[in-house]
Amino acid sequence: MSLTKAERTIIITIWGKISTQADSIGTEALERLFASYPQTKTYFPHFDLHPGSAQLRTHGSKVVAAVGDAVKSVDNIAGALSKLSELHAYILRVDPVNFKLLSHCLLVTVATRFPADFTAEAHAAWDKFLSVVSSVLTEKYR
Hints:
mainly alpha, 6 helices
């Protein structure tokens, strides 16, 4: 699945807004993930999963930084996220469905933070982009 030029423009534009609040957006997306899909907590037995904890903030920052790497390498997302894909597949053994769940939580978080900018077109572009990211992160499972 490839992104159109218009979709890439939307992704980069919205990323400009996300990047200014990356840490809090990442934290909120993880909080949504754990509240909405509690089974995902099993991958974080060593974390303090209380809202706003230092560990959630740190991991939320990493999640959004990885999304930023994908945005910056929108023409080579697979290359940008290859090591992350290997980590999650071979070492952490994360169930691939969790990437889709996190993508959904990230979409909801971005939509609530930037309602005027997150139009139907922006939603569709980001949904498609995060689907590509999820697909790349699950490549190593095949």
